[in-house]
Structure formats: C-alpha cells, structure tokens
Amino acid sequence: MEHSPLSPDADPREHLVVIGNGMAGCRAVEELLARDPDRFRITIFGAEPRVNYNRIMLSPVLAGEKAFDDIVINDAGWYADNGIALVAGDPVVAIDRAAKTVATRGGIVERYDRLLIATGSDPFIIPVPGKDLPGVIAFRDMDDVGTMLAAAEKGGAAVVIGGGLLGLEAAHGLSLRGMKVTVIHLMPTLMERQLDEAAGWLLKQALEARGQTILTGADTAEIVGDGKVEGVKLKDGTLIPADLVVMAVGIRPSTGLARDAGLAVGRGIQVDDYMVTSDPAVLAVGECVEHDGQVYGLVAPLWDMCRSLADGLVEKPTGYRGSVTSTKLKVSGIDVFSAGDFSGGDGCEDIVLRDASRGVYKRVIVRDDRIVGAVLYGDTADGSWYFDLLKKQEDVSDLRDLLIFGQAFAAGGGAADPKAAVAALSDDAEICGCNGVTKGQVVSCIAKGAHSLDAVRGTCKASASCGSCTGLVENLLALTLGDDVQSGPRTICKCTSFGHDDVRREIALQAMRSIPEAMQKLHWATPDGCSSCRPALNYYLLCALPGDYVDDQQSRFVNERLHANIQKDGTYSVVPRMWGGLTNPTELRAIADVVEKYNAPMVKVTGGQRLDIFGIKKEDLPAVWADLGAAGMVSGHAYGKALRTVKTCVGSEWCRFGTQDSTGLGVKIERMSWGSWMPHKFKIAVSGCPRNCAEATIKDFGIVCVDSGYELHVGGNGGIHVRATDLLCKVATEQEAMDYCAAFIQLYREEARYLERTAPWIERVGLEHVKARIVDDAPGREALRARFLHSQSFSQDDPWAQRAEGAEAEHHAPMARFTPQEGGFLKEIRA
Amino acid sequence: MNAEWLDIGWVDQIPVRGSRTVQVAGGDDIALFRTAEGKVFALLDRCPHKHGRLSQGIVHGGAVSCPLHNWRISLSTGEALGEDKGCTPTVPVKIDGGRVLICRASTLKAAA
Ligand code: SRM
Ligand SMILES: Cc1cc2nc3c(=O)[nH]c(=O)nc-3n(C[C@H](O)[C@H](O)[C@H](O)COP(=O)(O)OP(=O)(O)OC[C@H]3O[C@@H](n4cnc5c(N)ncnc54)[C@H](O)[C@@H]3O)c2cc1C
Ligand code: SF4
Ligand code: FES
User: Fold this and answer.
1) For position A627, what pLDDT does the model report?
2) Do residues A555 and A537 make contact, with C-beta atoms less than 8 angstroms apart?
3) What is the mean pLDDT of residues A489-503?
4) Which of A164, A195, A576, A683 would staple A199 via disulfide (CB 3.0–4.6 Å)?
5) At A829, is the pLDDT very low, low, confident or very high (cuts 50, 70, 90)?
6) Percent of chain A with pLDDT over 90
7) What's the CA gap between A255 and A269, in Å, rounded?
C-alpha cells in the first residue's frame, strides 16, 4: 500500500496517531478539529479497508434498507480536507512506548507524540467444536455483512446464536433476505439485559409471527459440518441444519495491543476522566476502554467520552463522568425501548400499563420519586421523555398518577388528578376500546343501577374484555356515585383487577399458552406476579393444556416443587402411596429400611391410611425415593393440590356386613386418579356398607356401597369447617361409579377456583348444577370423563422416579459447600 | 486465592425466579436468589419469623415469599415487607464473568 504523507518531517506540530478508524476514533478526531483544527498532525490506522462509517447502520444495510454509501460518515474528502493521513486495511500490531512508535502488519513504523487507541471490541466466539468452520461468522463489520449477503443470495437456512440486540438484528435482516432463520438463545427470554420477561415474551411472539424460529433456553453444544458449516447441535441433542451461522453472543473490549504494551488493562483499557491511560502520552476511547469500572457497548457514551477527550487535549478539561444508556432495537415494525435499571426490587415502585389489543407493554420503575428505569414495548413514543426524566433525576411525584400514560397526557391536563381527567372527557369519548363503549353509555348504565365494576361489566360490557379500562370505569363509578360504589369482584390478588373466573374464561377464549402471555393479555399490574397469582395461573394453564403446557416450577409452592412436605425445621416428610390403604411386607420393609438408613426421627400412621416418614433432608430426598421406588412405591402426593388418599374399609371380602368389594374399588379408583393436579387437595373414600367406616361422607368424593349398588356422595370436608357430603346419585355398577367419579373430578378441575375445595365450590355453584352436568347429561358426563383420562395420560408419571433418576437435581443439591475449618475451601457442586 | 470473595459457581446454575443454597458447615445456609430480571441476591436462608428456609419460597419481583407462613422478604435488604417486622442478614454478592461471588467475611459469620 502507498502512503505518501506519512512522515512530513517538515511539519513542526505534535503528531497524534489514532489506532482504529471506527466510530469513536473518528468522532474524537472530529471533536478535536472542531476545537483546534491546527493543533496536531494526525494519522489514523484502520484495520478495515475502507473509510469511517456508521457501524450501527450495518443492520439496515443487511436488511436492505440502506446501501453502504448511505452509512459512510466521513468520506475520503474529509481526510484530505483536514490533512489526515489514513492507513486503511493495515492493522497496527505493536506499540513501543519507550520509542513512542507503532508498527503495522504491513511493516510501517510510525512515531507519535500522542497516541489514541480506539480499537473497539472483538466479537466473542463461544469455544465449541466447529467454531472455525467456513460459514461461521460474527456480526461486527462490513465484511461480515458482505458474507451474510452472499450466503443469503443462495437461500437456505441460517442459525443466529444469541438473542440479544445484535443477534436479533442479524436474524431480522437474514430473514428479510429470504433465509429460513433460527435464533438460539441461552436465556429463557430474549434481550434479557435490556428487557424484562413480559417485554421479552412479546418480542418473541412478534418475531415468531414473522416466521423466525426462536429457541430460548437453548445451549449450543457444537457446530457440525464437513469442510463447511452444515448445522448446529444443541446440548439436548437437537440438530438444526444451517448454511450460515452467525455468532452474536457478546463482545469483549479489544485490549490486546494495549496489554502487550504494558498499559493498565482491566476488563478494558483503564482510563481516567480525560480518557488518559496509565501512560500520559497514550489515550484511549470507545468500546475498548474501562472507565470507573464500566465498559460500554453503545454509541451514546462514546460521544460523551470523545467530548471530554477533546477538551482535555486542548487543555480545557471537563471530564467524563460515566453514562446511563438506553437501547432501541432496530427491527422495523417492532418498537422496543429500555433504559436504566429495570430490576426493580426494594423501595422501587413499578408502574405497569398493558394494552393487549394494541400489543403494548410499558413499565416505569420509580424510586424515591425519581425514575430509575423504563421498559417499553409496542409504543416507544415516550421513551426519550422517560429517559430525559431519568437522566435529569427529576422529581416525578406530581406526575405520578399519569406518568405511565405518557408525556402528552401527564403534561396536558395540568391537574394531575385522574378523576378530574375522566370528568373532563366528553360523553362520546370511548372508554372501552374492546367493546366500543362510550363514557355516556357507562354513566347511564351506572345511573340505571349498575353500582359495581362487576355490574358495569355485566350490563354495558365496559372493562369486560381486556380490562385495561378498569381504572377509567372505576373512576366513573366514583364520580357518579360518590360513596355508594359497591366493591368489585374479589380479584385473584393485588396484581390484577380480574377474579379467578374471568381469568379462566379468558385463558380458554384467547387460547393463552404461558404465564407471561396471560399476564400481558390480562394487564397484570406487576412484572412477574406474586406468590398468590402465579400458582393459580400455572394450574389454570396446566388444566387447560394437558400434555402441552410446560409447568413452571418457580410458580409452585415448595411442597409441589420438591414433591414432599416442608416441616418447621426445614426438613421434609415423605408419604409414599399405599393404594387404598393396603400394604405388604416388601413395602413395609422398604419403609423400615429408609427410616433407619436416613435416620428419620419419626414414622407415623397418617389419618389417610398410610405411613409418613419425617425429618428427611432435601438433599436425601432423591435417594429415599430411589429406595422406595425399588420396592414399587410411588409418590403419595401428600404435598399437592392433587389426589391425596383413597380411604377404604375391608368390605365384602372379610367384613360380615360388607356389601361390595370396597377395598378393590378404592384401589381401582386410586389407580385411575392418582397424579392429577387439582384446584385444591382431593380426597376419596369407599365404605363397604352404610356403617361407613372409611368416613366416605366427609370426603370430596365418597362411595357408600349398598346391596343394590353404589351411593355416590360429593363435597364433603373434614377440615376446618366440617361438611357432610351431598348425595349425588346412586349407580348400579362399579364401572359407573368410576365413570361418575372421573367426570366429577374433571368438572371440579375445570370449574373451581384455585385453592377452593369441593365443599365451598358446591356451596357456591349449587348441587343442582353439579347434578345437571354429571347425572342428567350423559354425553356431557362422558366428555368430562374422557377429558380427565386424556389429561391423566400425561400426569401419571411418578415424579419421585424422575427425580431419583436425576431430573431437576438443582432443586435438591446445594450449589456449593463451605467449610471454615478446612481453610475455607468451597466445593462446587455442578448441577 | 481471592481472600475477600468466595467463588461459588455459575450464575445460570441458579434458576430464574428461583434459588439455590450454599451450605455452610456449622451454620445457617446462604440462599442465593435470581430474579426474573436476572439480578442475583444472597441472604441467610432463615426467615426472621420462625426461621423458614427462604430458599424454598416463591420469588416474585424483588422479594421472596417464605414457604412456611408467607411473609414477604425483600431480597436486597432482607427486611420483611408489608405489615410484618423483622430482618434477615444479607450477604454481599457480585457477578464477575458469569461467576457468582459471595463475601467471605459474611459467610464466615454465618458459620459462627
Ligand atoms: C400427615 C397428616 C396428619 C397425620 O399425621 O395423620 C396431615 C398432615 C397435614 N395436614 Fe392434614 N393431614 C392428614 C390428614 C388430614 C385429614 C384426614 C383425612 O384425610 O382423612 C384431614 C381432614 C379431612 C379433609 O381434608 O377434609 C386433614 C385436614 C387438613 C386441612 C384442612 C383442610 C380443609 O379443607 O379445611 C389442612 C389445611 C389445608 O389443606 O389448607 C391440612 C394440612 C396438613 C398439612 C399439609 C399442613 C401443612 O401445610 O404443612 C400437614 C402436613 C404434615 C406433613 O408434613 O406430612 N390438613 N388432614 C394426614 C396425612 C394424610 C395422608 O396420608 O395424606
Ligand atoms: C450491527 C451493529 C449494530 C449496532 N447497533 C447499535 C445501535 O443501534 N445503537 C448503539 O448505540 N450502538 C450500536 N452498535 C454498537 C456501536 O456500533 C459501537 O458501540 C461503536 O461502533 C463502538 O465504536 P468504537 O469506535 O469503540 O469501535 P468500532 O466502531 O468497532 O471501531 C473500532 C475500529 O478499530 C479497528 N481496529 C481494531 N483493532 C485495530 C488495530 N490493531 N489496528 C487498526 N485498526 C484496528 C476496527 O477494525 C474498527 O474499525 C451496533 C454495533 C453493530 C456491530
Ligand atoms: S392437625 Fe394441624 S398440626 Fe396436626 S398435622 Fe394437621 S395441620 Fe399439622
Ligand atoms: S417462618 Fe417465614 S413466614 Fe413464618
């Protein structure tokens, strides 16, 4: 390469040498020229064979929205006009600080008075087999875009590893260019550094709707191919064919040169507030630096750095103080914004607005009356306003109530009183978008006697669908009625304005498939719910989607997560199933052995006709279960909102009064119904005659055998409020007794509210309703029974056996052990 | 060996909206929590109410609900939230290169 003006010895000015012809390097030079154009003689070395361009616009170039020429920042004329020597396509390979020279790969050695390192970042390549195969690239510069475009010409499949900002922009571009794109992301939600779970879920939906395949929680094991890339293999064994693999898993500051030259380097090249490194003659700027412990991967902070660097160089130091950053995703048609700290937590207040019909999610996080973070999805118009309030640390207490509605609303009325804002609305202003209900209609329906939210929902339908106008309707009720408003329906918890029945209905109507989806569509007021609503949602989804729904372990109470009952001292009790209360020497021996082997302090006969082993440590549970499993025993679900026990008496086989084989029937029923998840626990009993030794008339489902058949009883409860059962009907055969039982369980599963046992459920809906569904409607009963058996085909998989074989070991094993006596070593336990 | 911090493992070993423990010989366990947002916190695994294992609770927002009587405990301060009063000691924790580090001094205190 020819570079004539490299050493004009005649020039008496100090020589500034810049390594890196990228965004920060050139911006720093621009800032310097603006302050003092003649101060330095300038030479820029760039590894890329081209002039300086806007790197962030590589995504639009890939997507076909821009050409390279459109994104050039400084063309050749700029270098010439400012007397800057550009050495492009020849990377610097060494810095000699003693001699004050830099050397390039091409052999150029150049002396400097001041050196500026602006080498940016290196893409992080995950060290898996196959990472060096042709066709595996990063997404960092124009050459990468060229490779992607060439691959896209040929069509085929692309895999993008990494579901962050860069990865998604690459995926978007490749998919617009006609490739079949799969995104592999290690974390459970996309862009988890910038977006919370709710926004991440919306984003995933939107991208999938555009035809991309998004695999979250997916870990890459290896890239396969013979001579060139052919596919990506995940740790779970899945193989995804690919003609192109883009690794976009992260970046690392490019610090190699600086480190070799002996400069202070941490995560990045360490600089002070004036961008000066540990050597006063050497400066650094951009993504390659570490300032005050921080490294940055976005351009906004670089601009601030470049300003203070230039101020320092012309001896008018202002100093850089770090930056708060905000992010936008450049995927056309998908609006995402995030800024600041959105992790919430203590002293933080979350203000959440969800508008499912428009696909909007907004969350502003406020601490001590200041905005500390914001996540916006679908409507990002107010992003810059929130970001501004955040950066200025403005007191927002006056705006608090209207903040989430955005700048126009909050600044508009002057009076920040939501009631006043609603009062000011005209009569034909639309209140409920889903059902097209105006303010006038809501007010007139209140005037006609709808004095509660529920009544309004029932009459004019306002707030009955997505619920986002609930606040407006409540304000109208308060305005119209003053103190006469009747309290609304009992909501599940403070996270939502909906009650259990509304939520169940909407889950079915809108075919919802996950907890984040339900929270979004139903406008949850908190980002991830609470310990009341999450278990309820998890159950409703599980019941609605048998075999399909992926259970959310973190939304289950500890007993169900660990398949054992927690005790006050933190140990667990273990109750294996004893079918119908029957046992045998093998089982008894296995239990006795477990009690001895694991030093269980107590074993007792329960009120449910089986044995309970107490005081087992969480870590020992899988081993205990393995031992019990070896004797043929399975989980008794004594811990679950599930089928508990089927109590039986001895029945016709032994008892002189027995009319039918109550023991045998009890065992059959338990075999049919064990393992099913229910709104609350469910107990069954079968007594062989009306003497009722199995106490069948205080069970959720009780059978009393008589000479002519079987009396079926429902809705009994022996707990806090004792309730004797209602007689449902009498049937003639064992098979009918079982069929009615299955249908009844399913009706309860589908209709009762979470944590409502059969007794209060039947009191609420009435015995007649249950009879109508189970006794009078034979096809309906058959359908309920079939749905129950279908769902059972997925749930009768002994959870203890799975855990004993090592499933979900992380629930049981500690992550590490610490023993102070042995010098404080930690033993890591990989699970 | 780093004197101040104990390296206990990878962040992704702690389930999101879940927790793991570090067993401390002769003392209370330390519970590590990871919120939906990916933040990691460490507390003694001991509810201020009746010593429930907080690690076994449900994590939501920046809090955990104790498995025994459902007190809500702040993950960042260890304080009981709402009407309840009490506090669980926190353990300084930091993430470095994907590894979770907890404060050695606090861990030793837990063992005492
Ligand atoms: C072990 C056992 C007592 C015993 O030693 O006999 C027992 C123990 C517990 N019962 Fe019970 N109940 C036991 C039979 C009963 C019975 C009798 C029965 O099933 O015939 C009843 C009354 C019948 C009924 O449920 O209608 C009973 C009514 C309750 C109630 C009140 C339920 C209600 O609807 O009012 C609770 C509280 C709850 O569930 O919310 C409860 C809760 C509990 C819990 C789970 C408390 C808890 O949350 O920790 C206890 C767990 C101890 C453990 O770690 O195992 N237990 N409990 C019995 C286990 C039976 C089994 O083999 O699975
Ligand atoms: C596809 C893409 C999209 C992005 N989108 C956004 C966005 O929307 N918003 C945002 O804020 N940020 C975005 N970024 C990040 C942004 O581009 C970077 O923060 C910014 O470019 C960093 O500037 P820099 O000068 O530090 O590094 P760079 O711009 O990377 O410049 C460094 C230059 O130094 C050169 N170099 C390295 N080593 C040597 C050497 N030894 N000798 C000579 N030259 C060398 C490199 O070749 C490179 O040209 C995006 C980045 C990419 C890749
Ligand atoms: S009666 Fe009360 S104390 Fe006894 S096991 Fe049941 S819940 Fe526990
Ligand atoms: S021990 Fe935690 S709430 Fe009671």
Assistant:
1) 96
2) yes
3) 84
4) A195
5) low
6) 63
7) 6
> Ligand 2 atom closest to Cα of A285?
26
How many Cβ pairs within 8 Å bridge chains A and B? 142
Which contacts qualify for A585-591: CB closer than 8 Å, 24 or more apart?
A586/A631, A586/A632, A587/A631, A587/A632, A587/A633, A589/A631, A590/A627, A590/A628, A590/A630, A590/A631, A590/A633, A591/A628
Question: Is B56–A558 a contact, with Cβ atoms under 8 angstroms apart?
Answer: yes
What angle (nearest 5°) sits at the alpha carbon of residue A615, between those of residues A614 and A619?
Answer: 125
pLDDT above 90 for B69: no
Lowest-pLDDT range, A48-57, A219-228, A390-399, A626-635? A390-399
**What is the C-alpha to C-alpha distance for residues B89 and A371, in angstroms, rounded to an integer?**
28
At residue B64 the predicted structure's pLDDT band, cuts being 50, 70 and 90, is: very high
Residue of B23, B39, B74 with shortest CB distance to A817 = B23
Report residue A192 as tokens. Answer: 């988890």
Ligand 2 binding residues, C-beta < 6 A: A 19-25, 45-48, 55-56, 58-59, 91-92, 118-120, 139-140, 166, 169, 254, 257, 286-288, 297-300, 302, 330
**Minimal Cα distance from A529: which residue of B?**
B60
Q: Are the C-beta atoms of residues A742 and A788 closer than 8 Å to each other? A: yes
pLDDT averaged over every residue in chain A: 89
Q: What is the pLDDT of residue A324?
A: 78
| Statement: residue A207 has pLDDT above 80 | yes
Q: Which ligand is nearest to the CA of A718?
A: 1
**Mean pLDDT of all residues in A338-343:** 81
Interface residue B21 vs chain A (CB under 8 A): yes
Taking the CA of residue B86 and the nearest CA in chain A, the distance in Å comes to 15
Q: Residue A560 Cα, ligand 3 centroid: separation in angstroms? A: 18
Q: What is the DSSP string of A600-633?
A: -SEEEE-TTSSEEEEEE-GGGHHHHHHHHHHTT-
Amino acid at position A233, single letter: K
pLDDT at B72: 92
Distance CA A7, CA A59 (A): 38
Q: Between A208 and A810, whose confidence is greater?
A: A208
Nearest-neighbour CA in chain A from B99: distance (Å): 12
Provide the shortest C-alpha distance from residue B40 to chain A (in Å).
10
pLDDT tier at A432 (50, 70, 90 boundaries)? confident
Give the pLDDT confidence score for residue A798 in this predicted structure. Answer: 94
Minimum-distance ligand 1 atom for the alpha carbon of A572: 54
Average pLDDT for residues A43-60, to the nearest whole number?
Answer: 93
Residue in A closest to B57 by C-alpha: A558
- Please, which residues bridge with residue B10 across strands? B99
Q: Counting every residue, how long is chain B?
A: 112
pLDDT value, residue A742: 98
CB contact at 8 A, A584 and A596: no
- In single-letter form, the type of residue at position A335 comes to D
Cβ distance of A531 and B60 shorter than 8 Å: yes
Cβ of A612 closer than 6 Å to ligand 1, yes or no, is yes
Half-sphere exposure of residue A748, counting CA atoms within 13 Å on the CB side?
Answer: 31
* Residue A831 scores a pLDDT above 50: no
Test B6 with A830 for CB contact under 8 angstroms: no
In A617-731, beta strands by DSSP E:
643-648, 682-687, 701-706, 709-714, 726-731
Q: Are residues A186 and B12, on separate chains, in Cβ contact within 8 Å?
A: yes
